[in-house]
Amino acid sequence: MKHTHKKEERRGAVICGAYGRGNAGDDAILRAIMQEMRQLDETMPMRVISRNPTETSRRFGVSACHTFHFKEIWQAVGKAELFVSGGGSLIQNATSSRSLYYYLMTLLMAKLRGCKVMMYGSGIGPVYGKFHRWAAGKIIDRCVDVATLRDEDSRRELGYMGVRKPKMLCTADPTISIHQLDREQGNKLLEYLGIPADGEYLGLGLRQWKGFDEAVENIAEALEYAYKAYGLIPVFVPIEYPNDCQAAKKVIDKLNCPYYLISEQLEISETVSVLAHMKAMIGMRLHSLIFAVENGVPSVGVSYDMKVDGFLKSIGCADALLHIESVTARQLQKQIDRCMQAQERSKWQQAAQVLTNEESKNLYEARKLLHGACTHQSNQASGGQKTMRQQKKRIAIFQSDLHVGGIQKSLVNLMSLEAMDKYDVDVYLFDRDVFFDLSDIRPHIQIHYLKAFPYYFRIVPFGAIMKLMPRFKFATTEPYDVAIDFSNYQQDCAFGALTVPAKKRVMWIHNDMEIKYREEKKYRILWTFFHSKFHRFSEFVAVSDGIIQPFKNKTGLKNAKVTAIPNLIDTHEIFEKCDKPIDFDVDPNKFNIASMGHLYHQKGYDIMLDQLKEVCEKRKDLAVYIFGDGPDHQALVEQAKRNGLEHVVHFMGYQSNPYPYLNKMDAFYLESRYEGQGMVLWEAKALGLPLIFPKRLEKYNISLKGTEDIQDALLHMQRTQKTKDDLHEYNDEICRRLIHLIESD
Description:
Layout: E1 13-19, H1 24-40, E2 46-50, H2 53-60, E3 63-66, H3 70-79, E4 82-91, H4 97-112, E5 116-124, H5 130-143, E6 146-149, H6 152-160, E7 167-170, H7 183-192, E8 201-205, H8 212-230, E9 233-236, H9 243-252, E10 260-261, H10 268-276, E11 280-283, H11 286-294, E12 299-303, H12 306-314, E13 321-323, H13 329-339, H14 344-371, H15 379-382, H16 388-391, E14 393-399, H17 406-415, E15 423-429, E16 445-449, H18 462-468, E17 480-485, H19 491-499, E18 502-509, H20 513-519, H21 521-530, E19 539-542, H22 548-555, E20 562-564, H23 571-577, E21 591-596, H24 605-616, E22 622-627, H25 633-642, E23 649-653, H26 659-662, E24 667-669, H27 679-686, E25 691-692, H28 710-716, H29 728-743
Parallel strand pairs: 1-2, 1-4, 2-3, 4-5, 5-6, 6-7, 8-9, 8-11, 9-10, 11-12, 12-13, 14-15, 14-17, 15-16, 17-18, 18-19, 19-20, 21-22, 21-24, 22-23, 24-25
Helix pairs in contact: 4-5, 8-9, 8-13, 10-11, 20-21, 24-28
């Protein structure tokens, strides 16, 4: 008789991290993750991978297997539904490349065995070496379903490694949710440790690291200052016992004031409770800072690792950051003064609340991964409150690509705008090649990739596409508040914005449609096939006032609701990048002019070269640098030779960071046939460059002054003192209009 066996149902989680090493921070991570898994399912079976499985089982009451017992791990992930990697900085090779590949291997094992894989409140980096970064990026991209990251630097780092497929979002370190002793129990703990509960204390979370020995005297001097100025007694709290006690003793040997050293291993809740009694905190150990901030204790981070920098930046406290290799007693004294100001504790309490709210997303994403998308968290997990995502308006933006171009740059600037933190934004792209640096995009903005329509769809009537094409698979089935076609040129972008569930649908207009239609034969042909899409949108945004009427005239939408919202100019990025060193110099005896843009008909470089021919017959000190590339490149090079300008005009190609080049110039020259808005003019204005552009382009750049006679301007312009402009009022007005567009019904 043949017996059939029912396939065993997957259940429970395998949790992998740097556990069983005696580090209070890592143990706190495990405690927090287990605490949150129990909220998902009180009876969830859990298996922890640990260097000391016996001790882990005893302390946490959980099944555990050894870090290097691969057969047991293989069996465990074959039975589990969820594999949790984290938190902590597992994906890094600052300590060891073997460690990096171990954790990458566990991700691969879990995926091969059919687990849902989540990186949970993780920190990323540093990962050194091109091959190591490539390998880490490939494995994470293929094996991880969701990555919740404890700071924005970690999210950027994954982006730099080429990670695109997993859902990635910034949350917070899981340990912010750790339960601690109540006040009375905490007082008793201090008394047990020989520390009076009613004292005034300055907490120290130190560790031995490169540069620490050189900093010891400076730290000791600052602690003596804290005692004399504020009566704060130093309390040395080891996060990794007993190793941190050795670092503490080096400072103690230099001290001439009272102190306390906790010279025994505490439970996690006890460590958190001790730090809750501090008036201020100086922490090298990341979790000494997290435990302090959890209790609203004003803190100073002395960084030895990018994770410390990332944490303080993530809570808006970058001003509390010093670095171990350069820290001085004076810097520490100033930071102690700051911590003791009356308003500081309120500031750090607010940071604690932000962290608590952000950390709740770890649990929310784990629940969605296990049980599918859900619209509400259980009352147990969220106290009946809406999730952070539900509290924010949701925006979907469709754009073809992030290749070189003004439209693409304007979207990157929009994604980097701090005001976008008010919203949850999904950006849908149809091409994975990215030219721009995406390191500054905001944490609540997620990038997703859709399959582009075939090229020949440009000549398929848009109405037919809407009727016949299957809908895209979007990141969520929940309706967006606003869906935006940011491109307005591509059929697939319009199709996405019109078919995604949304309350309002907006199209961005980037060009003067009347002139474009007149000037470009290809556009006239394609117009026949796509022009009907405009009538399907409820609202429009034009990047300048000057293109609103041409849009209405060409589309026939005389009563369309159109808002002028010029492109944002990220002056912070410009100023940061303009001083970067480059292997390039201009001739100081020349008057050096820059121009920048795509080399094709619209941008009018052929007009520019003819203008320059006339001018350079009279003026011999001009040098013109053209930054950009495009289909007309070779024709323009040949035209420059015919005009005798081969030693005057220099074709520089695309530069990923053009600002150091522009910063060396004396003026900026734009000669377009038409525009939507001349972003490059505003970027040049930010750097203080005098602007040369024809009067006809003024309508696209309200408040910038063009010239009637370009040749006369080129003949007589002289070098002037450049003054940078942060375009504060310009950008503020754009933000106001953008928010009004999103918030209005």
